[in-house]
Design goal:
Layout: E1 17-23, H1 26-32, E2 41-45, E3 55-62, E4 68-79, E5 90-94, H2 99-112
Parallel strand pairs: 1-3
Antiparallel strand pairs: 2-5, 3-4, 4-5
């Protein structure tokens, strides 16, 4: 017997969570960007519990850029509450290996430019 979609006892269909992140300044973008990931990625502050491998739909706004960057990514990093060094709680979302991921990564790297080679601390490493 299959559960009908309106059945209150039916297990919810796992859909990617939608998160939005608005980066307002270059320093915040530098701190959140994860260039060490193959396709690039973004640290998203959140208090919701996630697991590695969870699918996330991230809508990213970058400073004065009028475009929004929709990214269907996966959780590859988790910073729990109360982490060492007072790191912000949240997740790292790996960009997909597709046009949206590449476009977003290129745009971020264009904005950051030389700052990418900096040794300043970030939210992740």
């Amino acid at each position: 017997m299959s559960a009908h979609p309106s059945d209150p006892n039916a297990a919810p269909i796992a859909r990617p969570t939608v998160l939005s992140l608005a980066i307002k300044e270059k320093a915040a973008l530098y701190a959140a960007y994860m260039p060490f990931l193959k396709n690039g990625g973004m640290f998203v502050p959140t208090q919701k519990p996630y697991k590695i491998g969870d699918e996330i739909y991230l809508i990213l706004a970058l400073m004065d850029d009028p475009n929004k960057y929709p990214i269907a990514g996966k959780v590859v990093w988790i910073t729990p509450a109360g982490a060492n060094n007072n790191k912000a709680q949240g997740i790292g979302v790996h960009f997909p290996d597709d046009e949206t991921g590449q476009r977003t990564r290129l745009r971020i790297e264009e904005i950051l430019g030389a700052a990418l080679r900096s040794s300043r601390a970030t939210h992740t490493l």
